[in-house]
Amino acid sequence: MILDIHSAGGSDPDNLTPCKDLLFFSATDGEHGTELWFTDGTTDQTKFVLDIYPGTESSEPEQLICLDDWLLFVANDGMHGKELWRTNGEVSEIVKDIHPGENGFDIGLNDDEPRFTPMKRIESTVYFVATDIVHGLELWKSDGTPQGTAQVDDDPLGSYISRITLLHEFDGRLYAVYNWKFLVQSDGTAEGTLKVPINYTNQDQIYGLHTVSDQLFVAGLFRLRRGTIFKTNGELMTRVLTLPVGRWHGAEISDMTAVGDLLYFKRTLLEYHSADDWATAGSELWRSDGTSDGTVRVTEGVNEVFGEYEG
User: Fold this and answer.
1) What would the pLDDT profile of 196-205 be if each residue is shown by its tens digit?
2) Are residues 148 and 138 in the same domain?
């Protein structure tokens, strides 16, 4: 053990993030609530950074990401709500009060959805989702300075109310999923933030992005719950294959992983009971080279356990 941070109980270390020669993390010592700490791996240099939310309340630092000489993170000091902060281990301060008042910039989605859309760093810029007083949840960027923290674009989809659910880097650009359905690419400018055209009109949802060599694979659904693999080079998104489901009612794609020039993923078959009740009926390993013929199940043959028949 490096240091007994909370002698009366566990310190619950979380959000472990390396930055420079230090490891930053959130923890509680029982006196200050959950706050930011750092360590160089020695007892003497395992230290409390700052009591951001004074007293026993917790600032709940999260979304830790290293940007050059600074660690950027989201925290609540009890006066500004959740806002973007930075620290170098000695100096800690709010980068910018994006949403003045106690509510904070409300990074992420609504309370019924996953709270955060994780921030994404591309070179010396960090992208994130936030709202100010005027706009809804939109795409923002920061270089770690107040003047370099700004909204990228006010909804590239036009009149749509934005919900940004995924951020991903591909070929040096940011790719974002808007409203669970539209893929948008950005170079960090309003002029360079554009919807990626698609040659297929029936997709219902996009819920996964993964880079394999020079292709960006997109996992989505169409016709209710039919798992589909798409791909794009940034100019056009095309459908690779809608996965067969046999006698089942749907399929989902998860655990996308690149191995060489191939995408591996898990296909989970689904059985429909009601609109709010889809039961899983078993999972199998698949792979794709970005072509329809090259998107196949790794284990060939009939799955007798789950009664699946392809065709």
Assistant:
1) 987 665 556 8
2) yes
